[in-house]
Amino acid sequence: MSTGLISSDTIVALATSPGVNGAIAVIRLSGAEAIHITNRVFKGKNLLEQPSHTIHFGTIRDGDDIIDEVLVSLFVGPNSYTKEHVVEISTHNSAYIIERVIHLLMKQGARAAKPGEFTLRAFLNGGLDLSQAEAVADLIASNSAASHQVAMQQMRGGFSNQLKKLREDLVHFASLIELELDFSEEDVEFANRDQLRLLITNIYQVIRKLIASFEQGNVLKNGVPVVIAGKPNVGKSTLLNALLNEERAIVSEIAGTTRDTIEDEINIHGITFRFIDTAGIRETADIIEAKGVERTREKMRQARLIVYLFDPTQDSVADVQTQIAEVQHLNIPFVTIVNKSDLITVEQRLAFDVLKPLYISAKQQEGIDDLKDELLNQVNLANVNHDDVMVTNIRHVEALQHTQEALEKVLYGLDNPVTSDFLAMDIRQSLHHLGEITGAVTTDDLLENIFSKFCIGK
Ligand code: GDP
């Protein structure tokens, strides 16, 4: 473990987001002097004499000048998020008050916290492992039931616990092999090779499952990328608007929650669907025209799901079949939609039935709920057990992949005449990569890279 990042300063930062219209702001301090520093500017009870996990009403004063009436929450270390003394001061949410209180605390000896420094301390002091610390950032960024659930699960340690168990198994393996090295002249085998192979194979399977969970984990965290495709004028924009408008109506019912980024995202039963390049959706119109094919394909390749729209008043069934064949090459799930069902004749419908499409009218907003069900169906996420351990972080997947490669070498070593010292080396390599995930093995650079992406106050 590196130690260059450990600092004994008492740090302070605004923990709530700045500039938002809310009633209350929370200023957080952490460090050996946190309670002393607060006590020097707080008028009320003597905070030095109060037990942990208590809240106290009083005023923050700069000399005789009352800056605000506040509530002070005390967390006496190590029973706190950072394992140090932590104080949270709830003030009224005024930029002026916040600035003056933080300034005052800094005059008394606190230093402004760097991004992620509270969580970094929680990690360095053993309160969280690295993957849990990263989940804190994901939790704060989560904007759907699914992304919230995976982040929460990871923060509570589901993911780390599984890895800890794997590492213990591997350490056991490594120590037996290394014992053999000590007795190398006597040609003994402490580690039963069959049991070892079984153990490594088991670990290998678990890691493979974790790696495979990334695709789903990533989708739950970041949303399902969807492309709406089809010839010009089949109704792609109309459909997108129908999907989004409904969403906007729901969203704007909750006052103050309307966000610009909702623009091209919809949320179906807690799962986010992101429409790729919706601003340029008209461009995808030229899907089957020679010029546009490559560019449109490129877009479609980014999709995890394609919604392919047809206009029964323009397209013939044979036409549609040709277009479908094109999409099938891409090996991405797609939904066949016949739009403008309000205009369709009985004969046309009979003809199109062979394609087993979903009939909708984007304009009249008919069949939209069926389409939503079908979207959920296609990504096969509705039945995902959110309690399953799921990898959502690219850094973790990479470390798992490196572990997997090292384990493959171990397996090779077990089946071929490879000496114990090489085996031991490959096992150590796997341990190293697994440790990178939880932070058992880490460098200052890696930590700085991870925590600098946090906001200040986290
Ligand atoms: P895009 O080029 O694929 O994006 O197609 P648009 O969404 O711009 O729609 C083309 C035309 O078809 C517009 O005049 C729409 O009003 C019309 N349209 C779209 N969906 C429907 C529908 O379900 N029924 C009917 N009757 N017209 C539709």
Automatic annotation (TrEMBL):
PROSITE patterns per UniProt: G_TRME
SUPFAM superfamilies xref list: P-loop containing nucleoside triphosphate hydrolases, TrmE connector domain
GO BP term, pick one: tRNA wobble uridine modification
InterPro entries, A to Z: AAA+_ATPase (IPR003593), G_TrmE (IPR031168), GTP-bd (IPR006073), GTP-bd_TrmE_N (IPR018948), GTPase_MnmE (IPR004520), MnmE_dom2 (IPR027368), MnmE_helical (IPR025867), P-loop_NTPase (IPR027417)
Family matches, as Pfam families: MMR_HSR1 (PF01926), MnmE_helical (PF12631), TrmE_N (PF10396)
A single GO molecular function term of this UniProt record: GTP binding
Cofactor detail note: Binds 1 potassium ion per subunit.
Binding site for GTP: 233-238, 252-258, 277-280
Name of the protein in its database record: tRNA modification GTPase MnmE
Source organism: Sphingobacterium psychroaquaticum
Gene: mnmE
